């Protein structure tokens, strides 16, 4: 092989390698493809919330949400309105703070179910 052939062949090989590296580097700088959107959270189940409320909350808040010496009333019989602007805020409070003897022990779905039920005690439909 002649020297000119080796130089030309080496230059072509180098150009191909550099093109591959440059193309790969461009791919590394790209953001990953977005993941598909998460499935929407299921709607809270008021009936399941009522059952869980009776099992977990009624000891302190009473069977119908009327309150006891251990916990405040949650129903519309209260003198003062409950300080939650939305069912979402109520659910977040329940998730983080209830039950009082085991705060944070309810799953997000359980807290949402109880929150939906308690919301019906606070704001019953007529």
Automatic annotation (TrEMBL):
Leader sequence residues: 1-27
Segments forming domain Cytochrome c: 44-122
Organism classification: Bacteria, Bacillati, Bacillota, Clostridia, Eubacteriales
Keyword field contains Metal-binding: yes
Gene3D superfamilies the UniProt entry points to: Cytochrome c-like domain
Domain of life, source organism: Bacteria
Region feature (Disordered): 58-81
Record protein name field: Cytochrome c domain-containing protein
SUPFAM superfamilies: Cytochrome c (SSF46626)
Residue ranges of coiled coil: none
Molecular function as annotated in GO: electron transfer activity; heme binding; metal ion binding
Alphabetically ordered keywords of this record: Heme, Iron, Metal-binding, Signal
